[in-house]
Design brief:
This protein is mainly alpha-helical and about 100 residues long. It has 4 helices and no strands. Helix 1 runs antiparallel to helix 4 and helix 2 packs antiparallel against helix 3. The two termini are about 25 Å apart.
């Protein structure tokens, strides 16, 4: 279940000044893996993750985790909140798909 992890991401983002770089990296890497799993389940693994160009590449969470020292705390907080939103949205889409009667597209 993604809900406890989403809460953890939001809590860390809201208290970013107290989050160590090591904890931020752990959360970003876990978000990257979780979102990657959802993207595969939804069939969107090749599409860009964030289309506003704020961070390039298909996996901005891993990208930030790999170079955490190059980002300001507010940038980390924003991407943690973004990860929470993506995970929430993917969970909803998967739940809707699971509830949809067979044969309906």
């Amino acid at each position: 279940m993604a809900s406890p992890f989403v809460s953890e991401l939001v809590r860390a983002a809201n208290d970013i000044q107290q989050v160590s770089n090591a904890d931020a990296v752990r959360l970003l890497e876990r978000a990257s893996m979780t979102i990657g799993d959802y993207r595969k389940l939804l069939g969107h693994e090749d599409a860009p993750a964030i289309e506003d160009g704020s961070i390039g590449g298909p996996d901005p969470w891993k990208e930030m985790a790999d170079s955490i020292d190059g980002f300001q705390p507010q940038q980390v907080a924003e991407l943690l909140l973004n990860a929470a939103a993506v995970i929430r949205a993917a969970t909803i889409v998967l739940e809707i798909g699971a509830d949809k009667p067979r044969g309906i597209d």
